[in-house]
């Protein structure tokens, strides 16, 4: 009967070899593993990933499971060992996005992107009924994901030159949804009108349990009789109507 003794040096070499093997394996893991790690019911996900976890690309898909729409441009990523960061690029981003991984979570710099509003119907109701047009501009402050949002403005979503197939008036206006952190879990939402023939306002909040939002829309003082007639169908579609004011909302 043989007894094998492993000294400290041999154990260290064995441990190092195991870690090297694991690291080498991770480096060549297919990018398709990302699809397994993403939430199954998310309205925004990735599809047809190729390459590896460290250098690859994937298509962005919008919509509920089973009815997703794949967007025409792919998102690409590459891990930069010299910077210990992940570079992410997409035609909609206003420049490369460099994400850094640390003990406190994932840090992303201030950045913005421009998205055609015509992609929103892929998310389902009510966007597939409204059939929006125009441009969505999304900008955010430097963030550290994985913790509470800092108090103050976090992100702005601006819908420029908003229009819809439900009205012959185009554009209807420009609208701003502001996300603000509270220094605690969750964030607050504020909807306002920057310009337009419809005045839209709203307040809400979002947290781990979901989103709660209440808003209202009405004709702007500048809207003529003809404008009001052209916007009447859209106003009635937005929510519960009382005279010239519509109340809409979502949440629990």
From TrEMBL:
InterPro entries, sorted: T2SS_protein-GspN (IPR022792)
Main location: membrane
Keywords: Cell inner membrane, Cell membrane, Membrane, Protein transport, Transmembrane, Transmembrane helix, Transport
Compartment(s) where it occurs, according to its Swiss-Prot or TrEMBL record: Cell inner membrane
Ranges that cross the membrane: 12-36
Domain of life: Bacteria
Family label: Belongs to the GSP N family.
Entry protein name: Type II secretion system protein N
Protein species of origin: Achromobacter seleniivolatilans
Lineage: Bacteria, Pseudomonadati, Pseudomonadota, Betaproteobacteria, Burkholderiales
């Amino acid at each position: 009967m043989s007894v094998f003794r492993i000294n400290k040096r041999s154990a260290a070499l064995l441990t190092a070899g195991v870690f090297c093997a694991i690291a080498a394996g991770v480096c060549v893991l297919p990018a398709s593993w990302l699809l397994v790690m993403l939430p199954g019911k998310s309205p925004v996900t990735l599809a047809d990933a190729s390459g590896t976890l460290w250098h690859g690309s994937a298509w962005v898909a919008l919509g509920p499971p089973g009815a997703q729409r794949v967007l025409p441009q792919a998102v690409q990523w590459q891990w930069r060992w010299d910077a210990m960061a992940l570079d992410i690029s997409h035609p909609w981003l206003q420049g490369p996005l460099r994400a850094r991984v640390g003990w406190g979570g994932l840090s992303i710099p201030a950045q913005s992107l421009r998205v055609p509003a015509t992609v929103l119907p892929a998310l389902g109701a009510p966007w597939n009924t409204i059939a929006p047009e125009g441009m969505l501009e999304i900008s955010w402050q430097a963030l550290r994901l994985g913790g509470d949002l800092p108090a103050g403005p976090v992100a702005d979503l601006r819908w420029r030159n908003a229009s819809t197939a439900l009205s012959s008036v185009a554009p209807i206006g420009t609208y701003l949804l502001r996300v603000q952190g509270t220094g605690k879990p969750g964030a607050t939402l504020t909807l306002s009108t920057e310009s337009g023939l419809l005045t839209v306002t709203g307040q809400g909040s979002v947290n781990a349990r979901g989103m709660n939002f209440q808003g209202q829309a009405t004709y702007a003082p500048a809207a003529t009789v003809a404008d009001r007639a052209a916007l009447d169908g859209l106003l009635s579609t937005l929510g519960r109507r009382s005279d010239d004011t519509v109340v809409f909302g979502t949440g629990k």
